[in-house]
């Protein structure tokens, strides 16, 4: 049985505190942001608002795109939706996920995170993905998609006014990060089209 729930990720904070004696925010800053030189990445609502170069969220209202307020409630569960990062920051993080920083994210760790663990049959019926997938699983924080003989590691994010997609192929050493400050379904079309073109024979 599989069900996805963002709030469960909030349990990462007390577990991290118990294991390392450090708050989640401090641990991420020390072990991920700083060594990967994700120089504008931060955690928390106030850090986002205080950055003069932050994106403004947008949503459709009466057929038009309108700026909407940033929702601070998402930040109450920082491990689920509390990281703020630019496309440059995310590019560095993606390179590390592809094995480019083994001294920070070891091959063993990366393999463990992306190991298929639980079947997620519902993924097989997602509009943009259903014609591409031969199987779908959840790993440790990653969706693991099988496209024939190709394995794709993927996750999307969606909060009020923002969407994000991250997907990569360790086999081909290539990935994509898409960040939108709008609740547009176009992100799924863009991501799947990228992989159709990239993995085409």
TrEMBL record:
Signal peptide: none annotated. Residues 2-185 form the Beta-lactamase-related domain. This is Beta-lactamase-related domain-containing protein. It comes from marine sediment metagenome. Pfam families: Beta-lactamase. InterPro entries: AmpC-like, Beta-lactam-related, Beta-lactam/transpept-like. The lineage of its organism: unclassified sequences, metagenomes, ecological metagenomes.
